[in-house]
Amino acid sequence: MVTGDLGSDAGALRRARVLLGLVVLAVGLHLVLGDKPWGEDGMAAAFDERGSGDWLATKNYVVTWSYWAACGTGLVAMVLLLTAPLWTRRAAGRPGPPALSLPDPRGIPRWLLVAIAAAMLAHAVLGLPRLSHSFWGDEAYAARTSIAGIPSFKDDHWRDPKLKWRETFHFYRKPNNHVPFGILARLSNETWAILTEPSERLRNEVAVRLPAFAAGLLAIAGAALLVLRLGHPGSAAAAAWLLALHPWLLRYSTEARGYSLLLALIPALWLATLRVLRTGTWPAWILFAACQTLVLWTYPAALFILAVTNLALLGLLFRGRRHEATRLREQLARYAVALTLSATAFLQVMAPNLAQFWSYVQTQQRGEVSMALARDLLAHLVVGVPWGRAGPGPARVDFQDLAAAHPVLMQATLWLVLAFALAGLLRLLRGGDARVGVAAALTLPLPLTWLQAWALGSHVYVWYMIFALPSLVVLAAIGTTWTTRWIGHPGVRRGLTTTLVVALLLGFSVATGPASRILRRAPIQPMRGSVEATRPTLDPGDPRNEAILTATIYEGSQYYDPRCLHVEDREHLFRLMERADAEGIPFFVVYGREGLARRRRPELVEIVQREDLFAKVTTLEGFFSHLSRHVFRYRPGSAAGATATRAGG
Prior knowledge:
Layout lengths: L9 H24 L9 H8 L7 H30 L22 H18 L9 H11 L4 E3 L2 E3 L5 H6 L8 H18 L8 H25 L3 H13 L1 H6 L6 H21 L2 H17 L4 H18 L4 H38 L8 H13 L15 H7 L1 H23 L3 H11 L1 H12 L12 H14 L7 H32 L5 H6 L10 H4 L2 E6 L10 E2 L3 H14 L3 E6 L1 H7 L1 H7 L5 E7 L8 E6 L8 H4 L3
Parallel strand pairs: 3-4, 3-5
Antiparallel strand pairs: 1-2, 5-7, 6-7
Helix pairs in contact: 1-3, 3-14, 4-8, 4-9, 5-7, 7-8, 8-9, 8-11, 8-20, 9-20, 9-21, 11-12, 11-13, 12-14, 13-18, 13-19, 16-17, 17-20, 17-21, 20-21, 25-26
């Protein structure tokens, strides 16, 4: 084993002191000049005023938890500043390659660039029609609370949305705010407003979704680049096209959520990990730390991805520098600093959000992970649709329906993708140190997340585990080109491999075609359409909208219709009916999620569906049946003859 002392690095020490000094200064100014947790805007004062069981304003969480997080950040920065002469030291000489079987970081072949660009273009063409679709519930909630806001009525006229930036960074009453995406979406939306100067208070779904769309395209390139950096250029093109054609990516790259950003950041994290192992330079470590922070900031449920990646990285550091004790100490010091910076940055930006999330968790019912969820996840990962028609709202297309119509194609697609993924995993495990580490990072987070949900009884939706999609695609692509390794003649092997990949992609495109077509044709939940069925324009300030009354009994569309009222109870509904009669204006009732509405507000659903009181205007189908929207119009004068119903009879 080569040993020796670490020498000082004056340049690194100077840069570290300057940067950490600036952090300490900024934190100090915030602690001295900023609001204090014990002040009138802190959580303690707000609890005294409202009661501990109530939700507080976002500002209360920000004032309190940003202050305490800043205390921690300042302490960490001071410790790093004082110890900088130790962790900035470096081993003598230029670092040699680690004793690992790392793939050669060669450039990207021109043909592969063309293949990746073509895959990205194909995905863009598939996704463009969806960008202008109506938001569905989760999108509308995020847009209303943390991205765009909604117009407000004040001083006898409607005002444009005025959403404070702290809502974008820290509104977290539900974990729907994927913050880095929300920041990008808000910047995109406000840029659109500046460039177009819209005369009406209209919603622009394209502007809000554009960052997700760009992230989806980057996810395709990232998956291909990761496969290339693992030493499989032929498989890289297959990875790009498999992901480009996948309906699950198609949905979330055209949806105002942060999932496509997560799918772009995961390959970036693994690429940064490989770069750290190869070079060990400070820029590589800072990039690794930044990727970790962004992944967790975007999606805290990705914690197991970071845990497995860090354990694999540590193991590879020890193995790769086992004969260089000095270089190992240098790299471990840099790893410790990078991890500390990443964790500190995450806690600083997310402390107010995590405090709200804890309150949210306390209100949630326990759930269970089941075989039905496992089948659903499998179908989503392979072909991007649910497994079957079980659950609260069957989809308009599912795997069992497709398998009944095309049994050979769908079964072959399912089992071939899984078989190729298994072959890809075996290929990585046989490929040596670094590939084994990446294999662990690709495969272990999903079962660990599943076990955690099972142990805690967490309520889990299938899309919570979408982070496994790049893993399946990467493994399947690598496995596809490994199955022809037994052919000795290089030309024959390349020809057969190309034929196999093209056949797989053609079959995959046919198998996933129905889901992609439905996604492009109709919105997940037609919220905007249900408002357009009741109003001539989406501008709440339009004078024509003043003479129209709208209300909802369950899951309204306030993002598109800020004038929409929430019906509190039976008596309130009848008062609205009387108001429509007195003012001589049309009165519409709009609601969604009919199953939940019937369970939670059965008396209101019964009244609205009475043909002598309301006429059905339309039912707009969603991608899932429970996301359909129902629109009814009050029959003028009918409330007067329904006194028994009004009394509860």
